[in-house]
Design goal:
Number of strands: 36
Distance between the termini: 76 Å
Low-confidence stretches: 1-6
Number of helices: 15
Oligomer: single chain
CATH superfamily of the largest domain: Electron Transport, Fmn-binding Protein, Chain A
Mean pLDDT: 90
CATH topology of the largest domain: Pnp Oxidase, Chain A
Structural class: alpha+beta
Radius of gyration: 32 Å
Shape: elongated
Largest sheet: 8 strands, antiparallel
């Protein structure tokens, strides 16, 4: 190793990116432990069983290239922990051949980055080294850095070799601009290799060349009309070796392998990191983008004698997007506030009174959403469009919306109670088309937070929690981190308890990071505690003390208003801060938070005039505080406005205020113009003027 052992394993470009993304200190500690100046024994054995090795280097002009040397396993040896011997000639058609020849003639040292990757097992290791000696048939290397890489985004492939006589001698074509053949190879690729290099001039261990792997679903690399490539960068090991080099030099080399023919497309050119772009949010899995402009390239025929099977895609790759999907998502975003058609794909009973409906858009894909958000649906019932909101119980990567609906009791002549839920249970069948708006809501769960989470659900309040659990396990595949979660699930009895088997399966797959505590308030006589449930009744404050991981826990509550208030008060007494408790209730929330009680000034009485269809007066009645919200007031007088959540979130009950003022007594998340009002959580406001307050609204 060229520098003292205490030197950082990273150079300034890598430091800068790590600092930018908030991982500088943790990566320095980690890097000093795992980046070695030698190969451990298992790495030495690993390289000797590979059928190919990828090499990154810079040509005499400083342009990076990625190259490949392939032979049946056994052509690589490791005489010692600091040495690697490649017993195979470099292909004369490959740019590396020219670089080695020129450097040798000028007695100049050749720096290499090496990637050992075993596609069938998805194992990979990285090296940086320099050439100590070479012949026409071999390269002897001295190791400078060695470290392992995780198997993310590697597509598994099996291989077999064919004879060199069968494939013939390699040939190459040089070019400076991508043609149709090159574009087809790039846009159909699920794998490529990227080379970069950096020399500080200070003889640092972090100097030299590097080569790494990139994988995704076919279509994850885009060729723009101007010929530039745009590539998503996914969550990785946070070393930022490649991006650190690019940050310093603005150059990179790309290698695309045709696994069916053994042909290679190798490119070098200018590279730029795009940190902020509107396209990033539409491309699933992308954290940033890389733009690459080709300056030179080679198409090499008969380059590799190995032939590879069809890929078995990495679970991580399957959770990422393509540019076609990103384009579709960007186009769909324009329709986010529109009513769109969704087909009921299937229906499943989750309990005695809860039924799930799986909804798939008739065109395009679903909108991305965060676990905990709701879907607003519109149904035509008895000739009248009725709107309701239902929490989504699926995960974004499921590619479908699942809403889980509890059948409510119907009160005579009252459209607000149970009409829609009963219609869904009794009338809606698979294949039927219903309308919905894009997901919305502020009750959301962040799966990557380091704080543990306690989820507390009563009855149908379990629906957002299912989405949170499902998304947490899926995101753990991407991030290799699963947030610790404890779920307290409360139901009346076993027959009314929903998602039991699904939750148990999620717990089993969490490796101890998700735990569930089941409570039944009125269990059937045959049900035994500690077999399928833990507690009879609702949890006491002592139970919450036992199950709270720490006072640095995020708590998520969902259920009826009385349940929410009781649980909130108990958890606050235990010592959790108010801002750590997140709540979602059904209907108008009555949760009173500590220190957040607003002093609303309502009118004692008001004359409310309602207009429908612009100018047709529908109602003129006196309102008093006993009448409740404007929505409740109108319903009690036979007017049936459209509504959804009844808690200020969905905006379905939005109306135009023509005269007078109102006070919204609940926090609202729906967007409102200055002349708009949400009927579900508004009352006539007090006025300094004497006499009966006058209010006019258009619905």
């Amino acid at each position: 190793m060229k520098s003292a052992q205490h030197d950082s394993p990273f150079h300034q470009g890598e430091h800068n990116i790590q600092q930018r993304l908030g991982v500088r200190e943790s990566m320095e500690r980690f890097g000093r432990m795992v980046i070695r100046d030698h190969m451990p024994e298992q790495h030495r054995i690993f390289y000797q069983q590979l059928p190919f090795i990828v090499l990154g280097h810079s040509d005499p002009s400083g342009a990076p290239w990625a190259s490949i040397v392939s032979r049946p396993p056994g052509f690589i040896e490791s005489p010692s922990e600091r040495e690697l011997l490649i017993n195979a000639p470099v292909d004369p058609a490959d740019p590396l051949f020219d670089t080695l020849e020129i450097n040798q003639s000028q007695s100049k040292q050749t720096k290499l980055g090496l990637l050992g990757i075993e596609l069938p097992t998805r194992r990979r290791n990285r090296l940086s080294a320099h050439v100590s000696s070479m012949t026409n048939e071999s390269l002897s290397l001295v190791i400078e850095q060695s470290f392992g890489n995780c198997p993310q985004y590697i597509q598994a492939r099996k291989f077999e070799f064919i004879s060199s006589q069968e494939i013939g001698r390699s040939t190459f074509e040089s070019f400076h601009k991508l043609d149709k053949r090159a574009k087809n190879i790039i846009e159909s690729a699920d794998t490529f290799f990227i080379a970069s290099a950096f020399d500080s001039g200070n003889e640092l261990a972090s100097d030299g060349a590097d080569v790494s792997h990139r994988g995704g679903r076919p279509g994850f690399v885009k060729v723009q009309n101007d010929g530039k490539l745009v590539i998503p960068d996914y969550r990785g090991n946070n070393h930022f070796n490649t991006f650190g080099n690019i940050e310093e030099t603005g150059k990179a080399g790309l290698l695309f392998v045709d696994f069916n023919s053994g042909e290679l497309l190798t490119l070098t050119g200018n590279a730029k990191i795009i940190w902020d772009s509107p396209e990033i949010k539409y491309f699933e899995g992308a954290q940033r983008l890389l733009e690459f402009e080709v300056t030179k390239g080679r198409f090499i025929k008969n380059a590799i004698a190995a032939r590879w099977s069809k890929p078995e895609y990495s679970p991580n790759s399957l959770l990422t997007g393509t540019w076609a999907e990103a384009s579709s998502a960007r186009h769909a975003e324009q329709k986010r506030q529109q009513w769109l058609d969704y087909q009921v794909e299937s229906i499943a009973d989750e309990s005695k009174n809860i039924r799930s409906f799986y909804l798939k858009p008739t065109e395009g894909n679903i909108f991305n959403f965060k676990p905990g958000q709701f879907l607003t649906i519109r149904l035509l019932i008895n000739g009248k469009p009725l709107i309701r909101t239902y929490t989504i119980s699926s995960a974004t990567s499921d590619g479908i919306y699942r809403i889980s609906v509890k059948r409510d009791s119907v009160k005579s002549n009252e459209l607000r109670d149970g009409i829609v839920s009963n219609y869904l249970h009794n009338k809606v069948r698979s294949g039927q088309v219903i309308q919905a708006k894009a997901p919305a809501g502020n009750f959301v769960f962040e799966t990557d937070k380091q704080k543990p989470a306690l989820l507390v659900a009563a009855g149908i309040g379990i629906t957002p929690m299912i989405s949170m659990l499902r998304q947490s396990l899926i995101d753990a595949i991407k991030t290799r981190y699963l947030r610790p979660i404890t779920l307290i699930a409360i139901a009346r009895n076993e027959s009314e308890r929903a998602f039991y088997d699904e939750i148990e399966s999620l717990v089993d797959g969490s490796n101890g990071q998700i735990n569930v505590y089941w409570c039944l308030t009125e269990p059937e006589n045959k049900t035994k505690t500690h077999t399928t449930f833990n507690l009879k009744g609702r949890p006491s404050d002592e139970i919450y003390r036992q199950l709270l991981p720490s006072k640095q826990t995020d708590v998520f509550l969902c259920g009826t208003s009385d349940f929410m208030q009781q649980t909130y008060d108990m958890i606050r007494k235990i010592g959790l801060s108010d801002h750590a408790i997140h709540a979602e209730s059904f209907g108008p929330s009555s949760l009173e938070r500590d220190g957040e009680k607003e002093d609303h000034q309502f009118a004692k009485n008001a004359l409310v005039t309602v207009y429908q269809n612009e100018s047709i007066q529908t109602l003129e009645q006196q309102w008093s505080d006993a009448d409740g919200s404007l929505l409740e007031f109108l319903e009690s007088h036979g007017v049936q406005p459209t509504y959804g959540c009844r808690s200020g979130q969905c905006g379905s009950c939005k109306a135009t205020l023509a005269n007078g003022k109102v006070e919204h007594y609940l926090p609202i998340s729906a967007e409102l113009d200055s002349n708009e009002v949400l009927l579900c959580c508004a009352k006539p406001a007090a006025s300094s003027e004497s006499g009966l307050q006058k209010l006019a609204i258009h619905i």
